[in-house]
Amino acid sequence: MSPADWQIMVTAGLVATACGLLGPFLVLRRVALLGDAVSHAVLPGIVATFLLFETRAPLPVIGGAAVFAVLCVLLIDALRSTGLVKADAAIGLVFPALFSLGVLGVHQWTANLHLDLDATIYGEIAFVPLDPWIVAGIELPRAAWTMLAVVALDLALVVALWKELKLTSFDPEFARSVLISPRVLSRLLLVAVAITAVTAFESVGAILVVTLLIVPAATARLLTDRLWLTVALAVAVGWVAAIGGYATAVRFDASIAGAMGVVAAVCFTLAFAGRSLVLARKRTLQSAS
Questions:
Q1: pLDDT per residue as tens digits for the range 182-231
Q2: Which 3 state secondary structure label does DSSP give 84?
């Protein structure tokens, strides 16, 4: 394989690692579609960045998108924490409102400019080798270095707050009784998800980010009930999707992100079939006894 091939797979694997560290907590808290919500809610941030700075350069755009991504997750969590709105309904209320605000901004102030999500942060992973950075004598794509920093931050968050995240995910009422705030932990987690997603959008595209946040975590939950093993398996499945998807895309001259998504879905299907067979066998043995 050429250096470009390895760079693409490493970048996708780093995205999978960052998403795998956080995805299981989203699945446990039943807010798995948060990544999809963020991918739509960032549009007003893109419009605001252009209006304020008159640029579509990647770094300012990511900054503006990140502001609205964080705003999106905080609004969702605020609605959910009231107890009057369920998590799925909160997601369905907030991101269409922010996306609609962005659409109005595009129509009102940037009607003659091609300014949309595809032109700004919905990246193509095949292009990441074209923007190399050399750090400490090591040459990797800028996207890979950026995702490496995000992985380090996500890992530090999960390790530092492991007990708190675990407790608030499984038993928030008990967490409150021991003076651990589920709301604060939830918002920290959601902000980390927003930053991870927006950072990864530019290099690998929103669909792949949403896929790697949800599918590996859901697959891992079918294979084990232990949280630490769920996180480890989610990261592993993400890497399988990254490497296997790229190999499949090269073999069939297909979309790289699409192939990675399909491999992730195949992993889930195999895990689902295996879990179903195990449960069916247990029921048969119980009925026989």
A1: 989 989 998 999 999 888 887 788 888 989 999 999 999 999 999 999 99
A2: coil
pTM metric for this prediction: 0.89
Contact 11, 19 (CB under 8 A): no
Tokens 């409150």: give the residue: 176
Can you read off the two tokens belonging to residue 230? 């769920």
In angstroms, the CA 119 to CA 189 distance is 28
Q: Say whether 132 sits in a helix, a strand or coil.
A: strand
- The one-letter amino acid code at 63 reads G
Residue type, 39: S
- Cα 226–Cα 18–Cα 215 angle in degrees, nearest 5: 60
Q: Which residue has the tokens 């890497």?
A: 239
Domains with residue ranges and CATH for the chain: 3-123+140-288 (1.10.3470.10)
Q: How far is CA 70 from CA 82, 146, 258, 283, in A?
A: 19, 18, 27, 45
Cα(230)–Cα(219) distance, integer angstroms? 9
Each residue of 155-178: pLDDT tens digit?
999 999 999 999 999 998 888 888
CA distances from 143 to 19, 67, 228 (A): 15, 20, 27
What is the token pair recorded at 80?
């959910």
